[in-house]
């Protein structure tokens, strides 16, 4: 995993930790946390990192409230912790 991916993973974790249980974040929020100026270039990578976290069972990626595969989802998605 490269430095940006590691930073994005940490940002996703930190943002979700700061939210109430069940709350979601947008991949762009993680990208903005990592690079406030060049965040747009990181959004696709943030979605990919969310997909890896989902594959590990740590988060769910949702679209309109339903869990989706971020690799095939088109349009805006949200990230949330897996409810235990």
Automatic annotation (TrEMBL):
It holds the Pfam family DUF3253. InterPro entries: DUF3253 (IPR021660), WH-like_DNA-bd_sf (IPR036388), WH_DNA-bd_sf (IPR036390). This is S-adenosylmethionine tRNA ribosyltransferase.
């Amino acid at each position: 995993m490269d430095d940006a991916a590691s930073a994005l993973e940490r940002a996703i974790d930190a943002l979700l930790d700061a939210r109430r249980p069940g709350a979601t974040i947008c991949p762009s929020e993680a990208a903005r946390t990592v690079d406030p100026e060049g965040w747009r270039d990181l959004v696709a990578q943030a979605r990919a990192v969310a997909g890896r976290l989902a594959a590990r069972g740590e988060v769910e990626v949702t679209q309109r409230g339903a869990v989706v595969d971020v690799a095939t989802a088109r349009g805006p998605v949200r990230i949330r912790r897996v409810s235990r």
